[in-house]
Amino acid sequence: MTRDISGYFLGEELRHEEMDRDTALFHVLPCGLEKTVSYGTGTAKGPEAIIAASHQLERLIDGHEPILRGIYTHPAPDLSGTTEQIMQHIAGQTKQIAANGAIPVTLGGEHALSYGAVMGVRASLPDTEEIGIIQIDAHADLRCAYQGHHFSHASVMHLLANEGVQIAQLGVRAICAEEIAARKTFQIISHDGPELVRNNISAINLPDSFPQKLYISFDLDGLDPSILPATGTPVPGGLGYYQALDLVASAAKGRQIIGMDIVELAPDSAHRPSDFVAASICYHLMAIAGTTTGDR
Questions:
Q1: Are 82 and 63 spatial neighbours (Cβ–Cβ below 8 Å)?
Q2: pLDDT in tens, 215-248
Q3: Rounded to whole angstroms, how far apart are CA atoms 90 and 169?
Q4: Dihedral (C-alpha) 57, 59, 65, 66: value to the nearest 10 degrees?
Q5: What are residue 201's DSSP bridge partners?
Q6: Is CATH 3.40.800.10 what the domain over 25-290 is classified as, yes or no?
Q7: Burial (0-12, 13-18, 19+ Cβ within 10 Å), 61
Q8: Strand 256-263 relative to strand 189-191, pairing
Q9: E strands of the chain, at which residues?
Q10: How many other CB atoms sit within 10 Å of the CB of residue 273?
């Protein structure tokens, strides 16, 4: 019987035993959320485009073969409810995956989904453990609300910081006064785009006080638009491809990645390479996470 691998991340390369739900380390959650986009549209088609492009990836990436740890792709969820209901649904899925010792990899969709994804992973941890977010992004996403939405893509990090989650922001280059104040209030670590790009910085060290358990939230507009133009709110002066990945790897050194999302791809037929860049970023992050998991 022929398998239908069209909806599986890296489906063309997966062996039968590598796509087993019970043993796979990486659980891909397609989540084409598009509720609060404020400029470009199209994030609803992001997960589908990333998965389709992933079929052209090689098993080996940067000296690692994350596929050997197993990659299971879940069906796309029903996103017809309210934003709050959708967040609860996402949180339920990521909590269950993380509680079983696997790593949820949520594909967006707009950045608002990260609230549900992070809160689910956090809920899987004992009360004595905290989770810290490494955020690659052009924007701080620290507005209390945006265009009347508290669960907005522009407010997601404010929601999470308000929940007591520690955040380190890398690559931000579009920020308002309200967000600068929020950074001080929530003691958010920041290494912004101008600092990183102008000085060609590809590695950072997080303080010892930052949580050992990490969640990577990779907004694709953190990359320079010359690398990935197909995103809803592109901002010039962004991170390079390897620069962004090296920053994540350096921040994760000595810590454990237990969840991640790749968000804000807005597929455009005029910029099809963006789909492949997004898929490659996702697989690279799996490789980084796979080196931090120990004997999970």
A1: no
A2: 999 999 999 999 999 998 899 999 999 999 999 9
A3: 23
A4: 60
A5: none
A6: yes
A7: middle
A8: unpaired
A9: 26-31, 71-73, 103-108, 131-136, 166-170, 189-191, 213-219, 256-263
A10: 12
Q: What is the pLDDT of residues 149-207, one digit of tens each?
A: 556 657 899 999 999 999 999 999 999 999 999 999 999 999 999 999 999 999 999 99
Token pair, residue 232, equals: 């809803």
Tokens of 213: 């358990």
Distance between start and end Cα atoms, the chain: 33
What are the E-state strand segments in 33-154?
A: 71-73, 103-108, 131-136
Are β-strands 131-136 and 71-73 bridged in parallel, bridged antiparallel, or unpaired?
Answer: unpaired
Tokens of 205: 């060290």
CA atoms 10, 16, 20, 26: torsion sign: negative
Token reading at 109: 């969709």
